[in-house]
Structure formats: C-alpha cells, structure tokens
Design a protein that fits this description.
9 strands, alpha+beta, four-stranded mixed beta sheet, Beta-Lactamase, five-stranded antiparallel beta sheet, 5 helices
Amino acid sequence: MGEKAIKHGNSCIYEIDTEDRIVFCNGVWDAFAVENGGEQLRFENIKGRVLWDFLEGASTIDVYTRLISHVREGNSVKFMFRSDSPSIFRLMEMKIALTSKNRVRFSTRIKSTGDRESLSIQTEETSVPDEPPLLVCSWCGRLKIHRQSWQQIDIAVSKIGLFEKEKMPSISHGICERCLKEINSLLRT
C-alpha cells in the first residue's frame, strides 16, 4: 500500500510559502495520499492551509519550527524518518531546502520498505481518559513505554500488553531523545 506512487526514486514534494501555507504538492504527493486512504490530503483539498494544521505534538511542532527557520536562513537539511503503514515498514529520507521563490520545499522519498505484522490501533471511541497517552516518536515511529525507554512499536505493544487491555490509551506524538539529538546536530551545521 502506498508504494506505487514513490517507487523508483520518485520524490513526494510539497512547498510552503513565507506564511507557512501549502502552495504546491506534486502528483506523487496526490498519488501517495490516495494510495494510503488519504483522499482528503490531495493538494486540491489542502492548498492554502498552514503546515501546522497537519502536525501533532508540541515537540514535533517545535522541531519543525526550528528546521524551517534553519532552512530560511539559507541552510538545507536531510534526515531519515519512519513512515509506516499498518502492514508496511517504511524508512524515508526527507530533504528540506529553500527554493528560488523563497518557498520551503520538502522532498521525501522511500529508502527501504518491508512487510511488518499488521497493527491497527483505534483509540477514539475506546480510549481511557484518565490514563496518560502513549507517546509515539514522529521521526522513528518508536513508542515510549517507560520514562526513558523507546521501543519499536511492535516490541512495545507486546511489552506493555497493549492489546490485552480492555480500553486503549490515547496516542500523542513527540520526538525521542535519539531523534532529537540527530535533528539538533543538523541545526548546528
């Protein structure tokens, strides 16, 4: 699922203007969105909306704010991140750079994929309101299971007995210490 659109080195590209509004997405973006059940994310549906409408978690927003600021100062950045589907592991590469039109361009491509055990976590109607949310790293996709322990999601699900619980905790996004360290090193270059 989602592999047809960006196979063979095709890049999924989107751009934001100086007010952080989405002003361009290429056809690969639209195809990838549709292949992954995200018809509502096609360019015609998101054109003119601010990037921040699509990011979740204070630490994720903080990192993107810092990356975009760094790029607007004339730098470019490149990093790896996870973007899994319920049944596919995806290691992605993102390049962020300034265009000649003073836009910030995000160019993403798949570096590798693999099958994984299908995990589908639905929490909206069944979450436990008093329980703290599960924290997922927006970059590597690992799940925080203890104060400082981040695990691959399939391992974490098993360790905490997630599917054995009567109700699921809600899910929030952040960034693990390892990924934050990598991003901070990008910002120093």
